[in-house]
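S1.2 Input.
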Amino acid sequence: MTKPTRSRRKLTAIAASTALAAASLGIWAATATTAQAAALPTPDHVVVVVMENHAYSQIIGSSSAPYINNTLKAGGGNLTNSFGITHPSEPNYYALFSGSTQGRTDDSCVSVGSMTAPNLGSELIAAGLSWASYNESLPSQGSTTCSSGKYAQKHNPWFGFGNVPTNTAFTFAQFPTDYTTLPKVSFVVPNLCSDMHDCSISTGDTWIKNNLGAYATWAQTHNSLLVVTFDEDNSQSGNKIPTIYYGAHVAAGSSSATTYNHYSQLRTLEDLAGLTTHAGNAATATDVTGIWN
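S1.3 Output.
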C-alpha cells in the first residue's frame, strides 16, 4: 500500500483540526444562544405596582412595611441600587412606561392622546400581546378625567399616548379574580392614599397585601411575576427607591447591587414579554439580573 505523502498527511491533519474547531464553535454558539435565551424567564403574566415618594431606606427594613419586607423581599429579589429618573412624579411614570420623560417637567394634566412615541403598551399591542392598567379610584373604565377624589391622572402615563386605547385603562375594581385572565403585562396604580403619597407607609403596605397578596402567592406557582417599585424617593436620598421582584423564577432572598433605573425596569419588562422592540432609553439599558433562579 502506498504511504501517504507528507503533504497529504498535513492536509488531513488540518482538515481534522478544522472540523474539530468547527464542531467546538457550533457547541459554543449553541451554548451561548441557550444562555442568552435563558437570561430572563418568560412569564405568562407580569403585574407592576407603582407606589409613591419614598426612599429605599424608608421602606426596606422598616417595621411599618412588614408585608413588603417579610414576604416580598424575603421571598423575592431585592434591587439595592434602583433609582428614579427625576422629580416630580409624572416624568418618572412616563420614563417607566415609555423610556423617556417625554418632556414632562411637572405634574400637570396632559392632553389625552397627544403623544405618539413607542411605549410598553403600544409595543405589546403591536406584538399581538395583551396590555392593561388597573387604576384605583378611576371613575370608570377609560375615563380621561384629570382627577377625581384620590385619583390623579398624573400617575397614569398611558392616557398621554394616542397609540394606547383608553379602554385598556380599567378601574382597580376590574382587576381579575381569575388571575389566568390577566394580560401579559399590566400596571396597577393605587390612589393617592393607598400609594403612600398622602397616607402612611403602613397603609400602602397593607393595601399591597390585601389587594395583591393573593396574586403574589399564585404567581409563584403559575409562571408569573409581581414587581413592586416606586416613582421617586422623598427628594432626600439621591432618588434611590425600593424595587422588588416576586414570583416564579425569582430566587427567594436574592438581591442585586447593580445600578438600575426606570429605563432598566422598562427594558426588563419588554424582554420578559419577549418583545423585540425597546422604547426610548430602554434600547440602551440593561436587563435586571442576579435575582433569577
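S1.4 Remarks. DSSP finds seven helices and eleven strands in the chain.
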